[in-house]
Design brief:
three-stranded antiparallel beta sheet; alpha/beta; single chain; Kinesin
Length: 317
């Protein structure tokens, strides 16, 4: 494999997606992301003001005081992230496109951690990234795909199960079309059997116009915030805010997996997406609680990623 010397000059990124409940903005079909955007209201609990700015309305947010560091600050109603968008809008898709460019054009191992309120199939997101975006990059950069290998894990509290089973424990696709068929078929059954948090590890093998071979890793994890108990949320928030500090005592498999992706040995750049449901009536079905819980996790991740040390590393492919 070709050896490349690269500088990790960009920190990991945190993207907040506001998904207004009951609108098409938050939904997608089986394999296609829906681009329809619901018009945000200024009275919504959370409002995207700019590319990286989130407006938090105190009257609507049930726990605003715990989200703001200073109640006397003029910008007390604003929080900053790497990107704030409405559903899968142009901003969110731009971040996703950048991630795939890093993966295929810069040969950087990448990880997408997607935090959602309720369990759902990731087929549309994975199809957009690993089929549509990969095909686009392969064609524009004149790359030739050799194969895609995949492992699928069910991350439970203190255990990790490979749902692909024996004897192979790994799927191999010779084209993005093969991968798309799997996402539309067998993958759906695997999702139905997942008890914890799903995690997929992909290994892309491809060559450039000079027939130089590359291998890059792409990992995808879906965290269902609504399935985490109180201890789980606290542990995850602490982990994200203190990624450079090794925790004491026993930790959950979820925390261990995130720390593994973050470790220098993996040489991964992480994009963390928080799809926060936005609802006016916060008392309905605990909507306010899950919104605030997810925003706290996003804040912890943004603080942790910003404080993390960035070092130059040599990446061997």
């Amino acid at each position: 494999m070709h050896s490349l010397e690269k500088a990790v000059s960009e920190k990991h990124r945190v993207i907040v997606q506001l998904n207004k409940l009951g609108s098409q903005n938050a939904s997608h079909s089986k394999l296609t992301l829906v681009q329809v955007r619901a018009r945000p209201e200024l009275t919504d609990p959370f409002v995207a003001l700019g590319y990286d700015t989130l407006q938090v309305n105190r009257k609507s947010s049930s726990q605003f005081s715990s989200l703001s560091s200073s109640s006397s600050s003029p910008s007390k109603g604003k929080l900053h992230f790497d990107c704030v968008g409405n559903g899968f809008d142009a901003r969110t898709r731009s971040e996703m496109a950048s991630m795939m460019a890093h993966l295929l054009l810069q040969q950087r191992n990448c990880c997408m951690i997607r935090c959602v309120a309720k369990r759902e199939s990731s087929a549309a997101v994975l199809n957009h990234l690993l089929v549509c975006e990969v095909d686009k990059r392969m064609q524009s950069a004149q790359l030739s795909l050799s194969c895609i290998q995949c492992e699928y894990f069910d991350i439970r509290k203190f255990d990790m199960v490979n749902l692909l089973g024996r004897p192979t424990r790994r799927k191999k696709f010779l084209s993005t079309m093969d991968l798309q068929r799997w996402l539309n078929g067998d993958y759906q059954q695997l999702v139905a059997g997942c008890q914890g948090q799903e995690c997929l590890d992909f290994l892309f093998s491809f060559s450039d116009r000079n027939r130089i071979m590359y291998e890059v890793k792409f990992s995808y994890m879906q965290i269902v915030a609504g399935k985490l108990d109180t201890d789980g949320k606290v542990a995850l928030s602490t982990c994200l805010a203190n990624l450079d500090i090794r925790p004491r005592g026993n930790t959950s498999m979820l925390v261990d997996t995130i720390r593994d992706y973050y470790s220098a040995e993996q040489e991964m750049q992480i994009w963390m997406f928080f799809e926060i449901p936005v609802q006016q009536r916060l008392g309905l079905n605990g909507a306010g609680d899950i919104m605030d819980d997810m925003l706290k996790l996003a804040k912890a991740a943004y603080a942790g990623f910003n404080s993390a040390k960035v070092n130059k590393v040599g990446i061997c492919r």
